[in-house]
Amino acid sequence: MNERAHTYPTAWHAVADHLRHLGTTAVFGLPGDDMDLLGALEETDTRFVICRDQRNAVFMATGYALAAGRPGICAVGKGPALTNTLTGVLEARSAAAPVVLIAGGTPLDRLGTGAFQELDQLAAVRPLVKWAVRVDRADRLPAALDQAVAIAVNGTPGPVYVEIPEDLAGEPVTRTAPWRPAAAQRLTPDPDVLTDAAARIAAARRPLLLVGGGARHRNVDRSLEAFAELLGAGLFTTASGRGTVAEDHPLFCGVSGLYTVAPADRLWQEADLVIALGSRLEETATFGWPDADRLPVIQVVTGEDGLVTARPGAGVLGDVQRTVHAWTGLLAGHTPDAAWTARISEARRALAARADERAHQADRTAKESGGVPVSRVLAALGRAVPEDRVLVQENGLQDMWSYFHPHWTCGARGGSVVPSEQTPLGFGAAAALGVALAEPGRPVVSVAGDGAFNLFRSELPTLADAGAGVLYVVLDNGGYGWLQTNLDRVSGSGSRFAFTADRPTGNEGLAAAYGLKYWRADNPDDLDRVLSAAWQHCASGTAAVVEVGVRLADSPPGMAGPAGDFPLREDE
């Protein structure tokens, strides 16, 4: 036999060795009844985070993948265990997160017999993943695992699915060759395409640089900020691209689309070219942009499925960092338009002044009506937690404040993980645990509305068992604030339906039951004391929950009112 060959006693022992090869430090899930995977992991260093809900397990694996830049692994049983993961899989696909979902399956000889928990799992999961396979022979498992990872991390990253039928799970598996490398291949674009795009960039006088989630882990050398300086380009990110560039850079103007407010939004009306790095130009990222025919875009993505052709411009297929390095060489000596650079500086100053005005107005309203302004929460959080913190967000009414620069800013050392366009409630709260296990020792903060946190509460024992010092800041507006404001728009304040209520959340008792620390702040003057104490506790390795009483009327910047999926903008 080839000396590189190795025989494992069971399929799950082969899986455990593949996880070692991947460098996986934590697997998330809820095993099937046979427990064979846990048995195979007993003699390894790989942690298995036993979750209470399979959906949250995929959320955690997604947070791990986005933070670590390598595959997040989730393992579950069959039938309803698999269907419980589907919301998480949908989010992983939309977030372009390389997640490997491994599930048990009905024995092959019982398919079609109405076996216990039988389900056509491939049919259920295939529309939501990049690739799905049921392993029908034990000797095919190593190749299936290698292929799953290669598909998950390359092109546009995304989730994949591997099903191991129960009758094969206990069979020996022989691997006849070494495991394949698991890192994504970083492709260099076609030279002719690069040259043509560089000429278009050189001709632009008012460029904007948009950094998306596909640029994650592609800016360790700060080449993106240097490229913006070379062009004199205003620097924006998408929500998922936050944490990639230093948001204290003098060219940074905020988050694009839905989260760009006056006066920075005027730069988009004046720009003559957008260079989009690692963005699929989703609806929230382009919300409020000029009409398609007025603003050309040069878009760099790794997979052709992410190209958007509805605007004039060009598409470049390749790695963001390699593309930017090539353009930097081709454009050496480029002279930016001094008037445009000055216009960007003017917009930044005006944006900072407008943010101060909004924060002071929120303070005045709070003194009159009660509640804690969210802008004060974010400012106190920035003072309490070290600058290398990762903020993991939700996408509700009050927690959306954190998307708006400069109310929240990721400096050169800061990080960010956000929900995708799908914005499933509870994603951020669960993903924060995955982020913490992917980057041990780095401060992790979850900011969530009380409605979203409620969907995560079943995982408080999981959080306690994991020993991860995540700081949860829960903005309590009485329930589902975004839905309530939309209902008020339709029915007024007298509706017989309600999405919010003034009542205790119950989080204090639940936190205490699982050995987690809890604080509550209903006075803005208590924020610094409470958040500082909470973070000092989290730094010792135990999670904490801080609830803050906020008001529904404390709407995020630039929002004149709700209007379904998106808000009405202030008329400025």
Give the overall shape: globular
Tally of helical runs:
21
What profile does the largest beta sheet have?
6 strands, parallel
- Residue ranges: pLDDT <50 for 5 or more in a row? none
Key terms for this structure?
572 residues, alpha/beta, six-stranded parallel beta sheet, 21 helices, globular
Description:
By secondary structure, the chain is an alpha/beta fold. It contains 21 helices and 22 strands. A six-stranded parallel β-sheet has the order 3-2-4-5-7-6, sandwiched between helices. Strands 11-10-9-12-13-14 form a six-stranded parallel β-sheet. A hairpin with a 2-residue loop joins strand 21 and strand 22 (566-569). The longest helix is centred in the middle third of the chain and has 32 residues, at 338-369. The N and C termini lie far apart (75 Å).
Short description:
This protein is α/β, with parallel strands linked by helices.
What's the helix and strand layout?
Layout: E1 6-8, H1 11-22, E2 26-30, H2 36-41, E3 47-50, H3 54-68, E4 72-76, H4 80-83, H5 86-94, E5 99-105, H6 121-125, E6 131-134, H7 141-153, E7 160-165, H8 166-169, E8 173-175, H9 191-203, E9 207-211, H10 223-231, E10 234-237, E11 252-255, H11 266-270, E12 273-277, H12 283-286, E13 297-301, E14 313-317, H13 320-330, H14 338-369, H15 374-384, E15 390-393, E16 415-417, H16 427-438, E17 444-449, H17 450-456, H18 460-466, E18 471-476, H19 481-491, H20 507-513, E19 517-521, H21 527-538, E20 544-549, E21 559-563, E22 566-569
Helix pairs in contact: 1-7, 3-5, 3-16, 10-13, 15-21
